[in-house]
Design brief:
3-stranded antiparallel beta sheet; about 950 residues; 43 helices; mainly alpha; globular
């Protein structure tokens, strides 16, 4: 039975979409699902399998127009019925399939439990095998088709169901076409004619099916019927669409009329692509479909295109795919000239002549001989691996293009040839998904697809699943998405668990050595590929490459000159040599924000270069690196609390990996902890704005361990930063301890600004503990001390918090007066965070006691200020207020969106009090929509969180004062 349990495992329920929506128990017996509505809800969860689908979204999916008032209740009822239907027997130990999560439901099923997922897995396997191994592809594709019981999602008419059905039905036809291709490749044309006739009847305008039927009929000796098939589709296309058949069908008709030998089944010729001088592919081409088309288009307008990129990036394979498609389509004869084995220019002409099938004539230049041989023919020559013979290739290209007008050349090289008219196309590593993407999106990205395909070839049964997708993505990311590295790693996956493979990637050159046996020695190991590029560099270029390997991420020219210059390399040399390394694809150059050019090394190149540093050189380079970034951070610190803070914060963010490396050296063995403490004192504000409190506290405490009270200028910022970040995590006791020490040290040293900062911190702790009078007095003292210390920024921040306290104590006049003073001080300083906080408070006052439209305007203004400096906590606060304003106006959808985004931000930065407030906001939306059950669940989650952090339910500040 197509939907039976199959390989889902003992005791597991399986589900079917390939026909009517069904579920089966472990014996393959169909389960009673009940009403059509239940089947529709089940289908909605299955097409989103693994994801939480909010109740409102389920309502929209089931009732796309106007939903009945009881729609949510009907969804909950259907879910309850489905839970009973699919629950395993008591005591079976099977985890529940239907989960309630975050205001919605999720169906937790593995791919093997859903027939549509099994079908797509088999289809992908068949697609991979059909060209090179039709005998293996045919049964796989037949098994895939055997899973179907009827039209997909049969009986459901909802829009989402029809969309899913259209997609699955299209894949079913593609699967049938591929199975026919496999059978035709095995000489079984007699067996497929009947199937093809049925498929053509069902899909009369599908030209691919008509073409296959024409070939099958012709091979059966039924030439007249093959021609009638063509005439029938021609009549149908003209009548229905006013179109003529496509070029493929027209060519087939001509070949049938000529009784072309190309239509006969031939034994497969290994190693060569039919009708060309190109090698036949031995594996499938994964990804780069758009890039392949772009390069083909470039060859249509340029006679010389050079593919450049680092070793292992897939330049050769892309070039062969482009050339093969042009050759297969009859656009050109294609020839491959592989220059890899050449070690001397003297063999260049001989290699060219052999690849092109010409003989050098005595006394005549080879280009003249080639011109005579290829004259009048559309030809494409692939010059592969030109980097070690750039001058020879450039001379040949210029000469031959001048003599042969219908010739085009496609070169692969780690650097351009430098010939007039050359069009360069950089070949980048394969695309990667984002870490937070759904596992299906991860599985579909180019790098993961290539790894999975090659790993499945080496270890049958390997597949990317919800359980391993992120681990596979991590492997692909650490290997830079380089196709060669991915293929070598996938070959290793045959002999070791994926986790062990990932854990050993720090030693990648040994791990990926001789993982495959290819004809090209450079591709047998990752080290050999990188070494090939390294060995082509000049001595000074190698020196610079090893030195810039100290940078863990992208860097600018000034940093390279400061850190990697010196010795035999002066500043001018660094700029010139970096340009050379970029030109030969060893260092990458990207345009950053604002047009800034940034250099970076692929991780594989970086590790290779670091291994070639002389003994003792790496620690010296790391020290220079750390001291350079301390100087840079110190300079930025003077700008972080003024009108131009936003661009400086953006620069800090761009250099975050370099700062992290500098801190690791400073606090590591042989480092300089005091310099590290100074660097932490420059970076804490950036970390807090970004919500990176875990990382920030790690370094803050390392800094506090390094500097004592005898260095108050270094210790005070660290105490302030620690108190603030503990406060943001609702760790009030830890915050109070640090703020208390800060207050004592500030008073001892007469630092009034730091005294005001500590008082504001203590005030917020007292507020959280519901000691409101004490909090008010401390805030007022904080403002006074900050102004006395000449720090209007901290005064504005404390005043904004004091205004909130007055607001929450129902004192509107006092709240408004203090908020206006806060905004005045913030405007005088000109810093966006302080402005945003003051405007945010004024917006909340307008919402409670003033003009709602003005409140909306002020919320948008506050969001603008926060976003300029990347202040996620403030953004979450303003969004929460926007949600409350929308909910009060009975605008449920905008309210849900605002609270949802606020919740996402608070969870990302670890702000538990804000998370609880956002959950309560979403509960309010659910209550307004009559969904009391969802509201109760959200409120219970919020109450548990508040109990965990010791923050009561009454309104309190979402975020703490800064600094």
């Amino acid at each position: 039975m197509g939907g039976a349990a199959g390989d889902a495992g003992p005791g597991r329920v399986t589900f079917g979409l390939l026909g009517a929506v069904t579920a089966y128990d472990a014996t393959g017996t169909s389960l009673a699902l009940g009403s059509t509505r239940r089947r529709a809800v089940l289908a909605a969860l299955l097409v989103q399998a693994g994801r939480t689908v909010p109740v409102d979204q389920l309502v929209d999916m089931l009732w796309p127009g106007v939903a009945p008032p009881t729609a949510s209740t009907m969804v909950h009822g259907a879910i309850a019925g489905l839970r009973r239907a699919v629950a395993g027997p008591r005591g079976s130990g099977e985890p529940p399939l239907l989960l309630t999560r975050g205001g919605g439901y999720a169906l937790q099923v593995r791919p093997e439990q859903l027939d549509a997922s099994r079908f797509e897995t088999l289809l992908a396997e068949g697609r991979r095998l059909v060209e090179g191994a039709p005998a293996r592809a045919a049964p796989v594709l037949a098994e895939a088709l055997g899973l179907w019981r009827g039209p997909a999602l049969d009986g459901l008419e909802e829009g989402f169901a029809r969309d899913a059905a259209v997609r699955l039905d299209e894949l079913r036809v593609q699967c049938a076409e591929l199975r026919v291709d496999a059978e035709l490749g095995l000489g079984r044309h007699h067996e497929v004619v009947a199937d093809l006739e049925a498929l053509v009847a069902a899909h009369p305008l599908r030209e691919g099916l008509r073409g296959r039927l024409m070939v099958a009929l012709y091979r059966c000796g039924r030439q007249s019927e093959a021609l009638e098939t063509y005439r029938a589709v021609r009549r149908r296309l003209a009548a229905d669409l006013g179109l003529e058949p496509g070029p493929h069908l027209r060519r087939l008709e001509r070949e049938i009329l000529r009784q072309s030998g190309d239509l006969e089944l031939r034994a497969r010729v290994e190693g060569r692509r039919p009708g060309s001088g190109l090698p036949a592919p031995v594996s499938t081409f994964i990804g780069r479909a758009r890039e392949r088309d772009e390069v083909a288009a470039l060859l249509g307008t340029h006679r010389l295109v050079t593919l450049t990129g680092p070793g292992g990036s897939g330049k050769t394979r892309l070039a062969l795919e482009v050339a093969g498609r042009l050759a297969d389509g009859g656009a050109a004869e294609a020839f491959l000239v592989d220059l890899t084995p050449l070690t001397a220019s003297a063999l260049f002409d001989e290699t060219l002549a052999a690849a092109l099938g010409v003989h050098a004539e005595p006394g005549q230049a080879l280009t003249a001989t080639i011109a005579a041989a290829l004259s009048g023919r559309d030809t494409l020559i692939v010059l592969d691996n030109c980097e070690h013979l750039v001058e020879d290739c450039a001379a040949f290209v210029q000469a031959v293009l001048a003599r042969v007008g219908r010739m085009r050349l496609l070169a692969t090289s780690r650097e351009r040839l430098g010939v007039p008219g050359e069009q360069v196309h950089p070949v980048r590593p394969l695309g990667l998904a984002a870490e937070h993407d759904d596992w299906r999106r991860i599985a579909s990205c180019e790098a993961v697809r290539l790894f999975a395909e090659r790993a499945a070839a080496a270890r049958p049964g390997f597949a990317v699943t919800a359980d391993n997708a992120r681990l596979v993505l991590d492997v692909c990311r650490r290997l830079d998405g380089l196709p060669l590295a991915l293929e070598l790693a996938a070959a290793r996956a045959a002999s070791m668990p994926l986790r062990d493979l990932a854990d050993r990637l720090d030693n990648r050159f040994r791990l990926l050595d001789s993982a495959t046996r290819t004809a090209d020695p450079r591709h047998r190991s990752l080290a050999a590929t990188v070494a090939w590029s390294h060995d082509l560099l000049a001595t000074a270029e190698r020196v610079l490459l090893t030195r810039v390997a100290v940078f863990p991420a992208a860097f600018g020219l000034d940093a390279a000159e400061a850190v990697a210059g010196g010795g035999e390399l002066v500043g001018a040399d660094v700029a010139r040599l970096l340009s050379r390394l970029v030109a030969c694809s060893t260092v990458q150059l990207d345009e950053g924000v604002g047009g800034e050019m940034r250099y970076h090394l692929l991780e594989t190149t970086r590790r290779f270069a670091r291994e070639r540093l002389a003994d003792g050189e790496l620690p010296l380079l790391r020290e220079r690196h750390a001291r350079h970034y301390l100087v840079w951070a110190t300079e930025s610190g003077a700008h972080l609390f003024g009108a131009d803070s936003a661009p400086w914060l953006a620069r800090l963010h761009r250099e975050s990996d370099n700062f992290r490396s500098a801190l690791e050296w400073s606090f590591g063995r042989g480092g300089d902890p005091e310099s590290g403490a100074q660097l932490v004192g420059c970076l804490w504000h950036y970390w807090d704005l970004r919500g990176a409190r875990d990382e920030g506290l790690h370094w803050v405490h390392a800094g506090l361990d390094a500097v004592g009270a005898d260095r108050p200028s270094d210790r005070l910022p660290l105490l302030s930063a620690g108190a603030l970040m503990h406060l943001g995590r609702a760790e009030f006791e830890a915050s109070a301890v640090l703020a208390g020490e800060q207050l004592r040290l500030a008073r001892t040293t007469g630092e009034r600004a730091w005294e005001g900062d500590a008082l504001a911190m203590e005030a917020t702790v007292e507020w959280a503990r519901a000691r409101f009078d004490r909090a008010r007095q401390l805030y007022e003292d904080a403002v006074e001390a900050s102004i006395a210390g000449g720090d209007l920024w901290r005064a504005a921040m404390a005043e904004a918090q004091l205004a909130r306290l007055h607001r929450d104590r129902n004192e509107p006049d006092a709240a408004r007066a203090v908020a206006v003073r806060s905004l005045a001080h913030a405007d005088e300083v000109g810093e966006e965070l302080a402005r945003g906080l003051a405007v945010d408070v004024l917006a909340s006052l307008e919402h409670r006691w003033g003009d709602v439209s003005e409140a909306r305007r002020l919320v948008e203004e506050a969001l603008g200020h926060y976003r300029l400096v990347g202040y996620r906590e403030g953004e979450a606060s303003a969004l929460h207020l926007a949600g409350r304003i929308a909910l009060a106006a009975r605008e449920r959808a905008p309210a849900r969106a605002a609270f949802g985004r606020s919740l996402e931000l608070c969870r990302r930065i670890g702000h538990r009090a804000g998370t609880a407030a956002a959950l309560e906001g979403l509960a309010g939306v659910a209550t307004a929509g009559g969904d009391d059950r969802t509201a109760a669940g959200l409120l219970a989650d919020a109450a548990a969180l508040r109990a965990e952090i010791g923050v009561p339910l009454p309104t309190r500040p979402l975020h703490a004062p800064h600094g």
